[in-house]
Structures are given as structure tokens and as C-alpha cells.
Give the backbone structure.
Amino acid sequence: MKEGASMHTPIPPGNSGSGIERRARAPWRAAAALAVALAALGPAIPRGAAAAGDGAPRDEIFYQIFVRSFRDSNGDRNGDLKGIEDELGYLQGLGITTLLLTPLYDSPFYHSYFANDFAKIDPAYGTEGDFRHLVRALHARRMKIFLDEEVQYVTTAHEWYKDSLNNPKSRFSHFIVYDDSANAKPDLGIWGIIELPSYDGSKYGIASVNLHDPGVVEYQAKLFEHWMEPVGRAGDDGVDGFRIDHMMDDLDNRRRMTDLFSRFWAPIFAKLRADDPRVRILAEQADWGYGDDWLRRGGVDMVFAFPIRMAIVSFDKGKLSEAVSRTWEKTPPGKQQVVFIENHDTSRFASEVCADPRKERVGAALNLLLKGIPLIYYGQELGMEGFKASDRNSDANDIAQREAFPWTATLGPGIAVWYKDSGPWWNLSALARGASVSLDRESALPDSLLNYYKWLIALREGHPELVSGDQALVPNDSPSVFSFVRFDGARRMLVAVNLSADQAAAHVKAADVAPNGGASLRSVTSGDVTPRGADGAFAVVLPGYGVCIDEVSGGN
């Protein structure tokens, strides 16, 4: 091996490895206990404050929960609010600070994205009292909660639709978009869909809400306020922020409802921020692009880093370098990107990489170490699988990536298999086929993916450069190694990942790692030190799909 070279080896589950590998494995053996201890010492602060009392940056890790599939507390096979509350210890032990829940609306659809009633919680999830109790429990742990809001459409069972159809004199006459003055011809729903089949064979109509109507704007502003700070209620039981689903300035690009950023969203956001300046808004930009227009004109605080997610899944260095660079070039100062590798609308990352444990670790490292706010989709930390279907015109297309969280290796209490009697959707599911991952199994394996996630999150806690530090891509001479440095003042961390199955050697110039040239690199896993070589560069050798994380010493 050349002078100045180091060998960084991933830690596959169940591999005893060489002496160096065994030393490197030690951090994940203690990861669970360390993560719990760190969570107790430095909890997140609800609604706002981004810094701890000692001036250190406060970390934030989002965890997205598909509510119906997470945890069943009462045996009806539906995930519910009480089930989430029952597992707050697990989530905090993982290192999560902020929950993002999918919509809670009363809806005929299992995902609740189209409402029968915006103000009512689906009874299968629980009551508003259950929700407020969950929020108080989160805040008692100094954790936060965001609610997902999808307000642009309603089902044909919604009061606005039922009362206004064929009734121009209805008090909701202008709340729904109609194509005629008699209110006999409702406009199309999302992306031109007027009726959506469900997984159980039922079909439900969808209609577009008139977002230009002042009454609709007023109604939604008050409803958002209600979830944030319910009037007349005592206690810390209001949400900390909102996710806006399918946010567009021109709804569905039809030129029918335009200027929504200014006419609909701006008044609602202004009202919320006047009530509490700490509230934050996360938008799903409907084009899944860089989100710069949403951050600038849309007035939101955060968007999803979709281009980075797509590039990570590609395992292509060029695509990843471009996506990371362009994402932050297009992000205005003071705004944020939420970095993720899977969500409820995408295939599971484990399925994208054929459940290769090395690739899963690459995904985890990029998810948690790239600049931005990390988001983990429930079960991602276990390696849950599921491919999004594309050959059926039904909301069942997405069940595979929205399956029940596998708390145990066999179906038992708490597992929310609401789709178990759905015929083909259950037969195609990972759980029906005897899924190989579960929380009890992953927790028992020191080298599991779960403990790798815990270790990475604990690593962030001890390194402010990984939390709030800036980022620079680091050039190297390997076609497959992607490398970057996170830095906060003199503190610097070099991260390199091999995006190919073959061993790769990458040489990075010391001046690209630190302004004055780092004197050495120290592995955070093994403690091995890599000095600069005779050529003034660091040489890092990575096995196939290997990850190395090195502290930079001697630079400033």
C-alpha cells in the first residue's frame, strides 16, 4: 500500500473480520446505549430554538410515519396515535427529534390524502384528545411534530361538495371548482383524476377546492391555527410545523388556479407566523425539482432534496456531484433542504439496492452526513423493502412501500396489517412472504443496519460540523469515489463513499480537505491515522461500496 494510504472497510452484519475491522466495529456495538444517553443529555427543543444552552448547534432528525402502518395499539390492525405514543422511547433512542405524520383526515382512502372532513381525525387513528396527548408527550421529551396537510382536493363525500353540487345558492357554492354556473359540472381532481379506485375495490370521487375563494383561505388558515395553537386550550399541545403536500403555484399546471403562492399560501403562512414566529413550513415541491421557487416565492422554510435522492439511488458519482452542487447553489440563505433516500411515494431504498447491506450503509451515510436536515422514513432503519407498483390504476400501487412496521419477526400484537384481507395486495407484501427484517432481529445484531443508523446519528451529536457545518465537494482521482468535507471553523470531517462494487483508491489533495492542508486523517471507526503522502495528498482505499469518515487534524 502506498505511503499515506488507509484501508477503510465497511462492517457487514455477522462478519468477524480482521483485527482492524473488529476495532472499527466497536462503535456500533455501543450505538444503542450511546444514542439513548445523548438523547437524554441533549433533547430537541420544540418550536424553535436551534441551539443548546452551551451554544452548540442542536441536531434535528426527521422521522416520517405513515400513520396507518406504524403501530396498532388496540388490535384493530390499524396504526394509530396511541401506538405512536407507545413507541416514543424507541424513536428517541434511535436519535429522532422530529416526527412528520402523514395526514390524519377522516377519509375513505387508507392514506387519508383526500378528506371527507378536514377538521375530523379518522376514527381508526383515534380522537383529537389522543392527538393532543401525543403532542404533549412529544414536547415533554423535547421532541417536535409536523403535520402533513393536503388541502387542494376533497372527496365527493365532503360537505362542501355535497351541499354545493347542483346548488348555486349553497353557502359553499364557490368552495368547489365547477365548470358551469349551475354547479352541475365539477372540475377535474388531482392531475385530471375525478374518481380513484382503492385497494379494496371501492371507488371514490375527487374534486378540486377553489383555492382562490376568500372563504376557503380563511377556513384553512383557522384550521392550521387550530392544530398549531388551539384557541382556549391549555398546555403545550400544538404542532411545531406543517408539511404541504403537492404544493404548486399553478395547480396541476392547468392554468385554472394560478398565483397560489401569493393568493392562497402567503396569507395562511403570514397568519401562522404572526401567531408564532417559530412555526416552520416544509413543502413537497410538486415537480420534485430543486425547490428554489418554493423557497423564494413560495415562502416556505424547507423543501425536499429530491434531486439528491434520485442521484443517491443511481450510485453514479457524476449525477450525485451535480445534484449536491446544484441543490445548494439554488438554496437561498437561511433556507433548508430535507435530505432523504425514501418516502411514502418512492420505492424503499433497500429494494432499490436489492437489499445489499453495503449499499444500504452507503445510503444511510449519505442520508445522514450530507448537508441538510436528514429524514428517515419509518422502517428505513431496518431495511424494510417494497417496490412501488406502476401497472395498476389504484391507490394500492403504493402499499408495498407503506407496509406495516415489523416490530417482531412473526405477525403479532402491534403490527398494523390493515391490508391483510385485501387479497393480492397482501399476497404481494413482504410480510406475507416472510420478511427477513424486524425490529427485534435488528436490535439483537450488533452489526445491524439499525445500529449503524444509531451510530451515525450519535456521531452527529458529537460533531457540530455534521449538524450545522457547511459543505464542500472534494475532488479525487477515482471515477467511483464520491467525497466531501463538512466543516465548522477548524472542525472538519472528510466523508468518502465508494459507489462501485470494486475496490477503489482515491487521492485527495490536502488543500482541498482543509484551507492550510490537513496534517492527517483519523478514522472515526478504527482510530487509524492516515498521514499525507510524499506527494502531499491523502490516499484512501475503499472496498466495494465502502464508507470512510475521517476527522481532519492540522487544518484550519
DSSP finds 19 helices and 22 strands in the chain. Residues 123 and 170 are 28 Å apart (CA to CA).
